[in-house]
């Protein structure tokens, strides 16, 4: 507690000594140098001494203050009491979705280790949710191929060992420059490069630099250990490279130089030699036991074990595979006429036209249409791709986005939300959406290729066209601007995002709702040339946009129209086989048996028949 008599005049500032310790303005009777008691001019029902008015404005709930996210782009000014309600819907309070999913490439040997047979992608049609998401991932992988090699290696980590999570950050360079082939760049690439046969460990990408630092630290530790051994007076054990060339690989000093097959020196306790042994492959050669492994390299009878020879290790006798000699090709007869005509056909002067391209030649999937899910902190297989949602959402929209998009839609893509014909593996492309949002069966989930996101398309209502003006029907753009703003104000962010792509006129009207339903983020750019001005990052501009959040779906309807059963009745791939027993008394069966008996009789009477 600070007593007013113990505070100097410079510490009091504009406050009086009595007002400094007075906190109950309703019961204050004044006295001394006390000033008058006033009420808050903004009407927050607070009373205080007049000299404390400036301090009260720092805490007044009715004071209009800028948003806490003003430094991140929000320009709103609100009362301090409404700050807690504004922050969840603040346009600058943006959250990036980090949900992940995985996909196998179509032609991948590692993929077939986990499935019993090869599965092909079904013949999907445009509009299928699983196909549209797979095409989006294919476009992301195509952008990854344009990134310089040094950047690819730097983005690797322990979880994604070959392909980093896609899409890449916005500031990642997309085109290679001249410096990609310089000596300095190639020298830096070696720091991040990892071989294909590397084991699992912290040696991928930037973490490899840490591993090299650990190796340097290990060498320093080994030097300290050697110095500690020298203090005891004992000899320091030799390193591998300090041995002679013939003594490397745990070869004894005597055995390294001994080439006699009748050496009588036996194994001694000082481990300078070992006894002689015969070759286990029965080639007749004798050598010291420590040279048995090296002898295999020159032994004539040694055979490398096959892939499945470990099964026969416990058996006494191993069957040797018989090597079939290839038959010699007969030399062609010089007097025999050629079987192929050597007359050259006249070449056409005009080049024939190429065949027409298929319809969906540019819609080629490089990934499996089925979505895989691997835990975020689990190491992914080397050939597997990882994809991130990466959608920028307002904080109050993130919860509904995760539930509807990633839990309901992504979780049902593998033949649950999108139901396919049971004969899709044979080539049938029939599919339909088994679930629909809301209670109206006309609602459906769609995918927008422009924004790479899912959305909800409501059922179309039978709205009659308006009255004709100058023999043209009345449209939405013919209405007054105020009325159009009122109508589109009921749309969600995803619908506003799509509506802004229709025309410039609608884009200008939709932009008026950015403050209420939009988001804002700061766009940074590199500044400074590194010589005169120091390099750094500065805010270039503020980017206003609508998020890809649609109206939350609280309940889902189940389509029970029996479309699959109705489709199977007319499916061209549903070939039914009806087993039946032929009639042996019919004329067709009797003629068939008579023809077979005649054929058998001719075979037996031929001179080539062997009884």
Question: Would you write up a description of this structure?
Answer:
There is one protein chain. The protein has 611 residues and is α+β, with helices and mostly antiparallel strands. The chain is built from 17 helices and 18 strands. A two-stranded antiparallel sheet has the order 1-2. The relative contact order is 0.10. About 3% of the residues have low confidence.
How many DSSP E strands? 18
The low-confidence runs, each spanning 5 or more residues with pLDDT under 50, are 199-203, 333-344
DSSP helix count? 17
Q: N-to-C terminal Cα separation, in Å?
A: 124 Å
Globally, the shape reads flat
Question: What is the secondary structure topology, with strand pairs?
Answer:
Blueprint: H1 9-12, H2 17-21, E1 37-39, E2 47-49, H3 53-57, E3 64-66, E4 77-79, H4 83-86, E5 94-96, E6 100-103, H5 129-144, H6 149-154, H7 183-192, H8 207-232, H9 253-257, E7 276-278, E8 286-288, H10 292-295, E9 385-388, E10 392-394, H11 398-409, E11 418-420, E12 431-433, E13 435-437, E14 444-448, E15 453-457, H12 481-488, H13 493-499, H14 504-510, H15 514-517, E16 519-527, E17 536-545, E18 556-558, H16 563-570, H17 587-605
Antiparallel strand pairs: 1-2, 3-4, 5-10, 6-9, 7-8, 11-12, 13-18, 14-15, 16-17
């Amino acid at each position: 507690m600070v007593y007013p008599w113990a505070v100097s005049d410079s510490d009091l500032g504009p406050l009086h000594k009595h007002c400094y310790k007075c906190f109950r303005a309703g019961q204050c009777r004044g006295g001394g140098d006390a000033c008058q008691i006033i009420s808050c001019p903004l009407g927050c029902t607070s009373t205080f001494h007049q000299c404390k008015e400036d301090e009260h404005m720092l805490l007044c709930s009715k004071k209009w203050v800028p948003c806490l996210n003003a430094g991140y782009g929000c320009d709103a000014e609100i009362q301090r009491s409404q700050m807690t309600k504004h922050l969840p819907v603040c346009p600058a309070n943006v959250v990036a979705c980090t949900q992940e999913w995985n996909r196998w490439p179509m032609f991948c040997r590692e993929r077939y280790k986990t499935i019993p047979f090869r599965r092909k992608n079904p013949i999907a049609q445009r509009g299928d949710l699983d196909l549209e998401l797979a095409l989006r991932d294919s476009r992301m992988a195509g952008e990854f191929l344009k990134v310089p090699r040094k950047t690819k290696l730097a983005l690797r980590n322990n979880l994604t060992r070959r392909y980093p999570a896609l899409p890449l950050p916005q500031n990642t360079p997309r085109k290679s420059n001249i410096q990609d082939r310089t000596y300095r760049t190639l020298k830096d690439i070696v720091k991040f490069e990892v071989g294909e046969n590397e084991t699992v460990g912290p040696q991928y990408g930037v973490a490899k630099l840490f591993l090299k630092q650990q190796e340097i630290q290990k060498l320093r530790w080994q030097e300290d250990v050697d110095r500690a051994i020298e203090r005891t007076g004992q000899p320091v054990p030799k390193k591998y490279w300090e041995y002679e060339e013939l003594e490397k690989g745990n070869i004894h000093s005597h055995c390294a130089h001994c080439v006699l097959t009748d050496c009588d020196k036996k194994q001694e306790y000082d481990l300078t030699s070992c006894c002689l042994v015969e070759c286990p492959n029965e080639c007749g050669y004798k050598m010291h036991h420590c040279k048995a492994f090296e002898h295999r390299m020159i032994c004539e009878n040694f055979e490398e074990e096959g892939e499945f020879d470990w099964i026969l290790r416990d058996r006494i006798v191993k069957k040797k595979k018989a090597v079939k000699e290839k038959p010699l090709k007969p030399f062609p007869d010089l007097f025999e006429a050629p079987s192929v005509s050597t007359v050259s056909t006249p070449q056409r002067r005009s080049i024939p036209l190429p065949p027409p391209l298929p319809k969906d030649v540019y819609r080629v999937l490089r990934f499996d249409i089925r979505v895989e899910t691997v835990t975020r902190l689990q190491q992914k297989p080397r050939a597997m791709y990882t994809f991130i949602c990466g959608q920028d959402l307002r904080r109050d929209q993130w919860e509904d986005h995760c539930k509807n998009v990633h839990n309901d839609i992504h979780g049902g893509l593998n033949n649950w939300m999108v139901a396919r014909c049971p004969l899709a593996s044979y080539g049938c492309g029939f599919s339909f959406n088994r679930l629909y949002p809301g209670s109206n069966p006309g609602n459906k989930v769609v995918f927008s290729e422009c924004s790479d996101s899912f959305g909800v398309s409501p059922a179309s209502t039978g709205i009659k066209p308006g009255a004709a003006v100058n023999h043209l029907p009345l449209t939405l753009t013919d209405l007054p601007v105020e009325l159009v703003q009122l109508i589109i104000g009921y749309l969600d962010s995803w619908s506003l995002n799509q509506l802004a792509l229709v025309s410039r006129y609608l884009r200008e009207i939709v932009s008026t709702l950015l403050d209420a339903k939009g988001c804002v983020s700061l766009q940074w750019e590199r500044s400074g040339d590194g010589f005169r001005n120091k390099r750094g990052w500065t805010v270039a501009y503020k980017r206003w946009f609508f998020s890809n959040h649609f109206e939350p779906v609280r309940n889902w309807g189940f389509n029970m129209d029996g479309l699959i059963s109705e489709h199977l009745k007319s499916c061209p791939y549903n070939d039914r086989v009806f087993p039946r027993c032929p009639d042996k008394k019919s004329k067709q069966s009797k003629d068939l048996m008579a023809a077979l008996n005649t054929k058998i009789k001719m075979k037996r009477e031929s001179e080539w028949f062997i009884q």
